[in-house]
Specification:
Largest sheet: 7 strands, parallel
Order of helices and strands: EHEHEHEHEHHEHHE
Oligomer: single chain
CATH class: Alpha Beta
Shape: globular
Structural class: alpha/beta
Number of helices: 8
Radius of gyration: 17 Å
CATH superfamily: NAD(P)-binding Rossmann-like Domain
Helix content: 40-55%
Bound molecules: NADP nicotinamide-adenine-dinucleotide phosphate
Number of strands: 7
Number of domains: 1
Strand content: 5-15%
Strand order of the largest sheet: 3-2-1-4-5-6-7
Length: about 250
Amino acid sequence: MKLENKIALVTGASRGIGRAIALDLAARGATVAVNYNASAAAAQEVVDAITAAGGRAMAIQADVSRFEAAQALVKAVTDAYGRLDILVNNAGTTRDMLLMSMKEEDWDHVVAADLKSVFNCCKAASRGLIRQRSGRIVNITSVVGLAGQAGQTNYAAAKAGVIGFTKSLAKELGSRGITVNCVAPGFIPTALTEVLTPEQKDAAIKATPLGRFGTPEDVAHAVSFLASDLAGYITGAVLSVDGGLVMQ
Ligand SMILES: NC(=O)c1ccc[n+]([C@@H]2O[C@H](COP(=O)([O-])OP(=O)(O)OC[C@H]3O[C@@H](n4cnc5c(N)ncnc54)[C@H](OP(=O)(O)O)[C@@H]3O)[C@@H](O)[C@H]2O)c1
């Protein structure tokens, strides 16, 4: 899977899964814009790792849950590199609690970070991609968006929304040579999953046919595939990377 001469933007690439996606795209030859919100030093470390390996990257701060910030982010990437070929909407967060205890702000925060961010960045990038008549959009959803999860009504709704959004945009952009797909990770140990109890983690492994947690790299390989020329006839798909946890 070669991605030479491709310009990629990965949202939320300072750590966790986004970091692995940025490193994998760069290892395959893509120039990578490493977006972050708060973790400037971590994002710079990702850029340094890419450049040390002979690649090209830059870190860009933007809170992608904000419409204007996403517009400015995409403009900064295209100003710096002349175009954008691959958009990976990975930024996301959780605020888990039962609906009875969930505050309106917990709902709004997660829906903004996990769903509105995808609208914001796709809207900002789509004009350029349409003009180019080529491009790849990969949205990171979750098995929780497919199967639901107690304590995650906000997150599950946002991630299910990402799937519906992806399929709709795939239908809008297909005739322009642009593919839009989702990757749905299962349980991948990162800062996001640190809040789970040992019992919850044990239960997740027991429910996973492959009998292990995934790695950020497992997810990154699927993203690089969907971003590559090899996936040219795949659009509107949801590719689960979950060890078989939620079979569709
Ligand atoms: N880990 C899992 O088991 C799992 C499973 C299914 C799906 N996912 C999805 O995979 C994606 C990455 O998750 P992760 O586990 O790698 O989480 P993580 O370790 O918590 O990293 C989240 C990343 O998103 C960024 N981010 C959050 N809100 C942002 C915003 N408003 N604007 C810009 N960047 C923002 C963070 O940036 P800062 O560091 O700058 O704050 C960070 O780089 C998320 O969409 C998540 O829902 C994860």
